[in-house]
Automatic annotation (TrEMBL):
Entry keyword Disulfide bond: yes
Ranges annotated as spanning the membrane: none
Disulfide bond sites: C38-C240, C83-C93, C98-C104, C148-C230, C153-C213, C161-C176, C180-C189, C190-C200
Residues making up the signal peptide according to the UniProt record: 1-22
Record's protein name: Thaumatin-like protein
UniProt cross-references to Gene3D superfamilies, sorted A to Z: Thaumatin
Keywords: Disulfide bond, Signal
Amino acid sequence: MARPTPTSLHLLFLGILILSSGNILSDCARVFTITNDCDETIWPAITPGESFGGGGYALKSKESRVHTAPFGWSGRIWGRTKCSFDSSGNGTCLTGRCGSSLQCTASGETPSTLAELTLTPLEFYDVSLVDGFNLPMSVRPVNGNGNCSVAGCVGDLRQNCPSELSVKAGGKVVACRSACDVFNTDEYCCRGIYGNAATCKPTYYSKKFKNACPTSYSYAYDDPSSIFTCTGADYIITFCASKNRPQCTYHDNKLTCSGSAKGFFQNWILSTTMMALIVGCLSLML
């Protein structure tokens, strides 16, 4: 049987219904706010990136961008540093690059701080240092139910990175590699006889990462204190999070902040977000 084509009246009715019900809106989309609190431009990378600006873009210092991800989305978000791209989107980055493309379709090169999220009925999220560290990063759920703790590494591991793990450029430490990446042993990489939770234990290096960043993954089986769950949340992904800067996102037709944040978003961003939510919900409901 052919699927009936929605009429303009149906679309109008559904649009009004979505706008009038925050519950319906939150059931079919999640709002992601990606914020750069670093003192320099970074280039967020997202895979899969269809709902996130194609998978990558430049984000200036103190800027934010808002995206909507469909229910069921599962992916990775990380930051790239010191990038240079031409008008065709071809170029390179000092850390976190995904080949030579501005818009990523594959994982980034190590070392890079990595956020992982899965939007199932029980949502899972974490920040991983298993592949090393290149930027402070946090994941903050808002307006969700459950544990909903902040995950991440807000300290800068580059400042205290062991020399044997350090990546340097121009005389400065620009990233901190993992012990697996450097030494490539079964013990550090949790493989072979160390390929399970019973035998893969914290090492000297993973403990240093864990002490600096207690709510991040420090090695492959660091599950109990590193993976978090929530339901019905929106997510704020912040690079170089500042304790004093308000953390804001757009939720249930209103701006929600952790403090006073007048002017944090421009009206066009809110309007664009609202339109994206409507389009996304309509595509799921029709």
